[in-house]
Write a structure and sequence with these properties.
This is Aldehyde dehydrogenase family protein. Pfam families: Aldedh. InterPro entries: Ald_DH/histidinol_DH, Ald_DH_C, Ald_DH_N, Aldehyde_DH_dom. By secondary structure, the chain is α/β, with parallel strands linked by helices. The chain folds into two domains: 252 residues, Aldehyde Dehydrogenase, Chain A, domain 1; 183 residues, 3-Layer(aba) Sandwich (Aldehyde Dehydrogenase, Chain A, domain 2), CATH 3.40.309. The chain is built from 17 helices and 15 strands. A five-stranded parallel sheet has the order 5-4-3-6-7, with helices on both faces. Helix 10 links the parallel strand 8 and strand 9. It is globular. 49% of the residues are buried.
């Protein structure tokens, strides 16, 4: 090596502090998961109750912080979404037992629940706190540990929300490290953690690129794609009620839910009634000039203008150069010909709902199928009383949720229907996803099945299943790494020694 090269060579490799911190969180989560998987059902429900209570108490505070940090949405609506992911979510899944072994005496099968282990969960900027609440609750109910990675635009409020839930869980007996959040997220960090062999499953909620990255990480993933919901209003519908549903849905949290309607479709014979009803419900129905201005503003380079994301109808109208009344809740551009691939038929995460009409029902179905290819597998809405058309519409649409006579944003997410309440909407095979349901805690548990021969004798009464789950421990062993605050803190020698020993045990297969 020449003298010049010797002096230019790096003398010290400076570690990436954020990445090191995230990796330690994953290590702590792996320890917590191994400890938590033996908790009894009563212990799990007690921890879930504590997490739900803590989340509900600060739902409004975190909603304000989320809007302040991201600039997206409405505080009142975010507060409601946060609350829905606490007690209501818990009550929906309270009777779903993912802890107790199941015995099928007739088929001579015993089933043992096996939690995934460590869940790595991505949270979007549009619904940061609600997603943190929701995914943390799923992990708690399924006896898994979770490491959350928020969108950088919502990292502060997400970290505070996760820390608040973690403290409540630990006070109720959960192991330290059960709920954690990455404080300094970045694309390289997320990619590194997603590919870690200590991650057992990824729940990816976000953009298409990130979901695809989750599926290609080498770890199991539950990924969901974008929405582009079409609402069909049949002539059999009560048009005023349908219009109210549409305006309420599209204005909710300034339309940043992926379940929000993007296009409303009716028949030519009914379009005049729809325009009148939408105006009465608080919509500004655009003329041709306003529609052109809105299209130019929202899709300046054939891509959605992120400046409009989660902003109010008045805000968007002002930027687009459209005059609207102070009570306007949504903007409704009108595209006369549904067969065209108009930019306004794409997903719009702001209070803009495109109206179009078809000459007959068959053309309406054909157009809806074409439009929902962008957002395949997601959601659609049907307004009307014609059950024959409802079934035909649902069968034809490439989606896994069709809500009837309710707002799609709340209905498809399970808050205005009896669908599972969820902020991770599986898009299934049509949307190139591994799950087509609203994701719940059952997707984070798999079962070992002990199966006896059909004709072989089997005395299942002698099988002792008490060791599968134990009562809540009275004392917790020392954690390998102390729980960190919102910012990364130095790790002591003792803590590092404990972490190294834990790693060695894991390598030997003793852990």
């Amino acid at each position: 090596m020449s003298e010049h090269m010797m002096y230019d060579a790096p003398r010290l490799a400076v570690p990436d502090r954020a990445l090191s911190s995230a990796r330690m969180k994953v290590g702590r989560a792996a320890w917590a998961a191994r400890y938590y998987k033996s908790f009894s059902r009563d212990a799990v429900l007690a921890i879930a109750e504590a997490v739900a209570k803590a989340g509900h108490e600060k739902a409004g505070e975190f909603a304000e912080l989320a809007v302040s940090e991201t600039g997206y949405g409405v505080v009142e609506h975010k507060t409601l979404k946060n609350r829905l992911c606490t007690y209501e979510l818990l009550e929906f899944y309270r009777d779903m037992d993912l802890v107790t072994p199941r015995v099928d005496a007739e088929r001579k099968i015993v089933e043992l629940p096996k939690p995934a282990g460590v869940v790595f969960a991505l949270a979007p900027a549009t619904n940061p706190v609600a997603t943190v609440y929701y995914k943390a609750m799923l992990a708690v109910l399924s006896r898994n540990a979770i490491v959350l990675s928020p969108h950088p635009a919502a990292r502060h409020v997400s970290a505070r929300a996760a820390e608040h839930l973690a403290q409540a869980a630990e006070a109720a007996g959960a192991p330290a490290g059960l709920i954690q959040c990455v404080e300094e997220p970045s694309v390289p960090l997320v990619q590194d953690i997603m590919s870690s062999d200590r991650i057992n499953v990824i729940i990816a909620t976000g953009g298409t690129a990130m979901v695809r990255a989750a599926y290609s990480s080498g770890n199991p993933a539950l990924g969901v794609g974008p929405g582009n919901a079409v609402a069909y209003v049949d002539p059999s519908a009560k048009v005023d009620a349908a219009a109210t549903c549409l305006v309420n849905s599209k204005s909710f949290d300034n339309s940043i839910l992926c379940t929000s309607e993007s296009v409303v479709l009716t028949l030519d014979s009914n379009r005049g009634n729809m325009e009148r009803a939408l105006r009465s419900a608080g919509a500004h129905v655009c003329n041709e000039v306003d529609t052109d201005r809105l299209r130019d503003y929202l899709f300046p380079n054939d891509s959605f203008n992120l400046e409009a994301l989660g902003k109010s109808a008045q805000w968007v109208a002002e930027r687009a150069g459209i005059r609207v009344g102070p009570s306007t809740r949504i903007l409704v551009p009108v595209v006369a010909t549904p067969g065209q691939d108009d930019l306004l038929f794409r997903e719009k995460l702001c209070p803009v709902l495109t109206l179009t009409s078809a000459v007959d029902y068959q053309q309406a179905v054909t157009f809806a199928k074409h439009t929902m290819r962008r957002g395949a597998g997601h959601s659609a809405a049907f307004h009307g009383d014609d059950t024959t058309r409802l079934v035909a519409f649902s069968q034809a649409m490439p989606v896994y949720r069709v809500v009837v006579n309710v707002p799609c944003s709340q209905g498809a997410a399970g808050f205005d229907t009896y669908l599972p309440p969820s902020f991770t909407i599986g898009t299934g095979f049509a949307g190139r996803s591994s799950v087509g349901e609203n994701v719940g805690p059952q997707h984070l548990v798999q079962w070992t099945r002990i199966a006896h021969g059909k004709d072989a004798p089997a005395d299942l009464d002698k099988i002792d299943l008490r060791a599968v789950s134990t009562e809540r421990p009275t004392a917790q062993p020392t954690t390998p790494v102390a729980r960190q605050a919102d910012t990364a803190s130095p790790v002591s020698r003792d803590e590092l020694r404990q972490l190294i020993l834990e790693e060695l045990r894991s390598l030997k297969g003793d852990a």
